[in-house]
Amino acid sequence: MFERLEVKTTSKYQMIELLDHVKAMVSKHGVKRGIVVISVPHTTAALTLSKNFDPRDSMDLMDKLNEMVVDDGRYLHSEGNSAAKIKAALLDANQTLIISDGRIELGMFQSVYLCEFDGPRKREVLIKIIEG
Fold first, then answer.
1. Rounded Cα gap, residues 91 and 53, in angstroms
2. 55 preceded by cis ω (within 30°)?
């Protein structure tokens, strides 16, 4: 089972929760055991697992990344989005989650997020479920 999800970001830096969509896909296909692989094929966006109970956690992550990798234009790459590429490289383009008894195995407040570092843009998220 494979799906391409289009996500429209609305600001330069943003985190968008994807877990509800992934859960719906697992449920729609009736998968009881396996894994779900989520991938973002962009060099200026990433995926991460983070707390979904308090939105300030996402804000803290973005703020700290912006502190660590300053978007001051002093990079060799001339496209103007080098800082976004570095932030994305510090996180990951892929996440793999376990499906057990039809549920995605995550911590109580854990969720999966698309991290935008060069928006607003249309982003593609690839989701693949492997039963087993």
1. 21
2. no
d(CA 86, CA 29): 36
SS3 state of residue 84: helix
Q: Residue 97's closest CA among 51, 128, 54, 61? A: 128
pTM: 0.93
- Tell me the fold of 2-131: Jelly Rolls (2.60.120)
CB 82 within 8 A of CB 23: no
- If you ran DSSP here, which 8-state letter would residue 111 be given? E
Amino acid at 61: L
Nearest by Cα to 116 from 124, 108, 128, 126: 124
- Longest CA–CA span in the chain (Å) reads 50
What does each of the 132 residues of the chain score in pLDDT, given as a tens digit?
999 999 999 999 999 999 999 999 999 999 999 999 999 999 999 999 998 877 778 889 999 999 999 888 788 887 889 999 999 999 999 999 999 999 999 999 999 999 999 999 999 999 999 998
